[in-house]
Design a protein that fits this description.
- The complex is a heterodimer.
- Chain A is α/β, with parallel strands linked by helices.
- Chain A has 2 domains: 2-160, Rossmann fold (3-Layer(aba) Sandwich), CATH 3.40.50; 171-217, no CATH class.
- Helices cover 29% and strands 17% of the residues of chain A.
- Chain A contains 7 helices and 9 strands, in the order E-E-E-H-H-H-E-E-H-H-E-H-E-E-E-H.
- In chain A, helix 4 (94-101) crosses helix 5 (109-119) and helix 5 (109-119) packs parallel to helix 6.
- Chain A is globular.
- Chain A starts with a strand and ends in a 19-residue tail after the last helix.
- By secondary structure, chain B is an alpha/beta fold.
- Chain B contains 5 helices and 7 strands; from the N terminus they run E-E-E-H-H-E-E-H-H-E-H-E.
- In chain B, helix 5 (135-151) links the parallel strand 6 (121-125) and strand 7 (155-158).
- Chain B is globular and about 55 Å long.
- The two termini of chain B are 32 Å apart.
- Classes of the chains: A alpha/beta, B alpha/beta.
- Chains A and B meet through helix 4, helix 5, helix 6 and helix 7 of A and helix 3, helix 4 and helix 5 of B.
Chain lengths: 217, 183
C-alpha cells in the first residue's frame, strides 16, 4: 500500500496521478492540482480567515486564498486535515499520533503526513516536490529527516523523487575541489559513493604528498 | 544491549563511565571509552595533514591514538592500521544493510553501527548541536538515525542540554504547545 506525498517544489509535476494511487498534498500543492485524497493545512484556519494571523505578521496568506482553498476542497472532493475541525476540515489525530510515536517533534506539515502514513500502515511512501533548497527550510529538514528515518526503521520503503536537498550534506570544498555533496570523512563525490563503497574502491588512502591545505568541511 | 554514545559538548560529564561507552576523536583524553570513532584518515592526521586550522591538533590527535592503542580501545576509522586496534569502519556493510549513505558526522556512523550490532537501547550524551555552524547539517542526519533507531524499536534517549529532537523555539509546528507537553 503506497502513498504519494506531493509538495509544491520542483518535481511535483512528476508525481503519479492514477486514480487508484493514494496521494496526499499540502495546501500549496493543492493550488496546482486538485486530485488529492487528503490535503494537509496544519495552520489555524479560523485565525487566517478572520485576518488575525495576517495582522500578527504570522502568515502571508490572505483571507481570500484561504477561502479559495476551502472551496477547492469541496469542488474536488478531498479532505483537509488541519489543527482543528472547521468548516469542512477534519482534525488531524494529533493525540493518537503523539501517543503512538511518543514524540512531539513536528517541524512542518510534512512531518505530520509522514507520521500519519506510518500510523495508517502504508508500506511505501513516495515523496515528490519536496526540495528544501532554501535556507529557511533548515529547521524543517530536521523533522523531515527524523520522520523519514522513523519510517525506514519501521520497514517502510521511502523514495524521495526529483531534485532535493533531503538526505544530503550541503556542497562544500575539500582540498580546493568542489563536491556537490559527499559522505562525511570520505573524499569522493556522492554520486559515485555507493559504487565506490561496494567495490571497495574508496580513495581514502592516497599518499600524503598532496598540498597541505586547510580542509574546509 | 545498551550503548552510550557520548560527545564532547556540555554535560558529557554526566554520562556513565561503566557499560558500553562509545566516543569520538580525541575525547578519550578526558574520559574512558570502549570504542572511539575517528572517521578521518588517521595516517594523514598523523602526518599533520589536518593540523593547519583543523580542530584536531596533531599533538592531541597522536596522544589520543596512542592512548587508544595502549588501552586496546577499538578505533573505527576510514582505514585500518595493521596489527593495531585501529580498524576500518564497515561502511560497505552498513550502507548495504541500511540502504543509505547519509552520514554527516561521527555520531551518525556510531548510531548506524550500534543498530547494526543489535543495540536495543541507545543513550546519547554530550551532543548539543546548536544552530548556525556545521551542526546545521549534522543535526538532521543524527535525527534521521535516531528516527531510524526508534522505527526499529530501539529505545533512544537524548540526555542533557541538546537541540536534538527539538524544534525551533521548542514549539510543535502549528499548535500552540511547547514540545513534551501533554496533548
Amino acid at each position: 500500500m503506497k502513498v504519494n506525498i506531493v509538495g509544491s517544489g520542483p518535481g511535483w509535476e512528476k508525481a503519479p496521478r492514477d486514480e487508484d494511487e493514494v496521494s496526499w498534498g499540502f495546501y500549496t500543492s493543492a493550488e496546482m492540482r486538485g486530485d488529492f485524497d487528503i490535503v494537509f493545512d496544519m495552520h489555524p484556519i479560523p485565525d487566517i480567515l478572520t485576518g488575525k494571523r495576517l495582522k500578527e505578521g504570522r502568515t502571508n496568506r490572505s483571507i481570500d486564498s484561504c477561502k479559495k482553498m476551502l472551496r477547492r476542497a469541496t469542488a474536488n472532493g478531498y479532505t483537509i486535515y488541519s489543527l482543528e475541525a472547521y468548516d469542512g476540515c477534519e482534525k488531524y489525530p494529533i493525540k493518537d499520533i503523539v501517543k503512538k510515536f511518543n514524540t512531539s517533534f513536528f517541524t512542518c506539515g510534512f512531518d505530520y503526513m509522514m507520521a500519519l502514513a506510518i500510523y495508517r500502515g502504508f508500506t511505501e511512501i513516495d515523496v515528490y516536490g519536496v526540495t528544501l533548497f532554501r535556507s529557511e527550510y533548515k529547521f524543517e529538514r530536521e523533522g523531515i529527516s527524523y520522520w523519514i528515518g522513523r519510517a525506514e526503521g519501521s520497514g517502510i520503503k521511502v523514495t524521495v523523487h526529483g531534485p532535493t536537498s533531503l538526505m544530503r550534506i550541503p556542497a562544500r570544498k575539500i582540498r580546493g575541489r568542489d563536491f556537490d555533496a559527499c559522505v562525511y570523512g570520505y573524499e569522493v563525490p556522492e554520486e559515485t559513493f555507493i559504487e565506490n563503497v561496494l567495490t571497495d574502491n574508496l580513495v581514502h588512502h592516497k599518499p600524503s604528498d598532496e598540498p597541505q591545505q586547510v580542509v574546509a568541511n | 544491549m545498551k550503548i552510550n554514545i557520548i560527545g564532547s559538548a556540555p554535560e558529557w560529564q554526566n554520562a556513565p563511565t561503566d557499560g558500553i561507552c562509545w566516543g569520538f576523536n580525541t575525547h578519550i583524553l578526558k574520559r574512558p571509552y570502549n570504542v572511539v570513532f575517528d572517521m578521518h584518515d588517521i595516517n594523514r592526521e598523523s602526518s599533520g595533514f589536518r593540523n593547519n586550522g583543523w580542530k584536531l591538533s596533531k599533538h592531541k590527535h597522536d596522544e589520543s591514538i596512542d592512548l587508544c592503542l595502549d588501552r586496546d580501545v577499538t578505533v573505527f576509522s576510514l582505514g585500518s592500521v595493521k596489527d593495531s586496534t585501529i580498524i576500518e569502519y564497515p561502511l560497505g556493510e552498513i550502507c548495504k544493510y541500511f540502504d543509505t549513505d547519509y552520514f554527516s558526522c561521527g555520531a551518525a556512523y556510531a548510531i548506524a553501527l550500534a543498530l547494526y550490532q543489535g543495540a536495543t537501547e541507545i543513550d546519547i550524551w554530550g551532543i548539543f548541536l546548536s544552530f548556525g555552524d556545521e551542526h546545521a547539517y549534522q543535526k538532521p542526519c543524527i535525527e534521521y538515525w535516531i528516527g531510524r533507531a526508534q522505527g526499529m524499536g530501539v529505545k533512544v534517549e537524548v540526555h542533557g542540554m541538546t537541540r536534538l529532537l527539538k524544534n525551533l523555539r521548542d514549539n510543535i509546528y502549528g499548535y500552540n504547545y511547547k514540545q513534551k507537553v501533554r496533548l
